[in-house]
Amino acid sequence: MTFLLITTQMCMYFLTCIVLNTVSNLLFLSSVSFVIAMTAERYTAICHPMLYHAGLCGPRMAILVLPLIWLASLSVPTFFNTMLAIKMREIKWLIICDAQNLVSFDQFYTSIKSVMYGCFFMFSVLAVVFVYFQLTWISRRASNDSGASSRALMTVTLHAIHLVLLLSSLFYLPFMNWLKKLKVQNQMLLNLYFVMFFVVFVLPRFLSPLVYGLRDTKLRLQIKRHVLWTISSCIAVRQCQ
Prior knowledge:
Largest sheet: 2 strands, antiparallel
Number of strands: 2
Structural class: mainly alpha
Domain G-protein coupled receptors family 1 profile: 1-212
Pfam family, one: 7tm_1
Strand content: under 5%
Helix content: over 70%
Low-confidence stretches: none
Number of helices: 10
GO molecular function, one term: odorant binding
CATH architecture: Up-down Bundle
InterPro entries: GPCR1_Superfamily_Member, GPCR_Rhodpsn, GPCR_Rhodpsn_7TM
Strand order of the largest sheet: 1-2
Number of domains: 1
Main location: membrane
């Protein structure tokens, strides 16, 4: 919702736009951080099973890690947007709430923010690639527990796809601005807004629950039962008609 408000270029007060931009950045950074945390959990489970079973990746650690991820994800956009709000505190009028407009207010803070985001995303990609090759090497060497290594490798592959979809959102606004320069019809442009929003922002959020949900045997059995019951009910209703 926050991203839709920002990208649809609605007119609002400057401070309101700053708050919405902060929330949007928080959700984006936390999503990438959660992917890295889940990848690290799979790496620890396969490459360092002693630490994993000792409770390093247990519920207690999750309770500690989750607030840290939210806090770290909140600190960066809050700092830069607060500095921008202080510098532009005299702005009281309505503006078009667009990420590109916020960039134009101060190039210095925007450049530093871009460098920090670039380093963070580069670290994220390198972490996933490192874990992928580590698990590939272990799965080739292991013979007695190759099934667990293969499943972990598949999970990390899905996390890599998840990360690529998340990082592709960085090209969302430049791509849409490029389409505007091509003078695409307004209705087609609006449709592309929502299609790209679903593919780039909504779909990645479904991947993690889907991956970890389908891995759970009890949940998988319940899904099969509900699907079979739904299919049988539809067939019975059609036969009665």
